[in-house]
Each structure stands twice: as structure tokens, then as C-alpha cells.
Amino acid sequence: MLRRILSIVLILPISIGLIMLAVANRHPVALVLDPFAGVLSVDLPLFVVVLASLIIGVALGGVTVWLRQGRYRRAARSAGRDARRANAQVDNLRAAMSERAPRGPMAPGGGMGPIAPVALPGRRDAA
User: Where in this protein does the record put region Disordered (predicted)?
Assistant: First the structure.
């Protein structure tokens, strides 16, 4: 519901502005397609020229952004494949570990027993 309200709040003023632009700029202008001879020209209302320029600019900008972000989409696809591969490997390793796990009773107390501290080479404070 909020998304619908936001779209109405955004689209309504833009639509009103475009309608006002179209009504205020109905007089024809010559759109010359050949700058040297002036033979190829079309008479169009000014609002058509302005709106067509806006639409073409937005479309070209969108295509440019889409093309420039191709490397990021490619990296995201690669990362997704790597993540799926890693998840499959984790599942396989878990299945292998559950098959290799001891089936008998555990150590008394439910654990592995006391673990003695290990002295690491180069460390003096190992107890």
C-alpha cells in the first residue's frame, strides 16, 4: 500500500508538469535533420521535441549504466556459483562426517575429557 501511495505521489506531479508543458508549447517548430542543406526538416510541436529528447536521454543513460555495471553482475554471478559450490561441499563433508562418526557411547561426562594446554613454539607464556 505504501509503495502505491509513493508511486502516486511521485508520478502525479510529473504528469501534471508534462501536461502543462504540452499545453503551453503547442506551436510548431522546425526540426532540421540536415544541418548543411536544410532539406530534411520536420515541423513538430515543441513539446514533442522536448519529450522525445527526454525519453531518448533517459533510455541512453539506462543502457550506458547497464553496460558499465556488467562486470559487477558478472562478479555477482560468479560469487553465487562459488557459494552454491561451497554449500554443496559443506553438505557432502557433513554427510561424510556423520558416516564416520563413532556410534558407540561417548566419554564419561558427555565430553572428550580434559584438554591439556599446548606450548606453542616461540611463546613463553604458554602454561
Answer: 98-127
Element (H, E) at 21: helix 2-24
Q: Mind listing the pLDDT tens digit for each residue in 43-96?
A: 999 989 989 999 999 999 999 999 999 999 999 999 999 999 999 999 999 999
- Quick one: CA torsion of 117, 119, 123, 127, rounded to 10 degrees? 40
Q: Which of 27, 26, 18 is nearest to 55 (CA)?
A: 18
Closest alpha carbon to 47 in 24, 76, 81: 24
What's the half-sphere exposure (Cβ side, CA atoms, 13 Å) at 20? 6
Rg (CA), the chain: 35
CA atoms within 13 A on the CB side of 102: 5
Reduce the DSSP state of residue 32 to 3 states and report it: strand
Q: Any idea what DSSP says for residue 44?
A: E
- The whole-angstrom separation of Cα 40 and Cα 101 is 83
d(CA 67, CA 60): 11
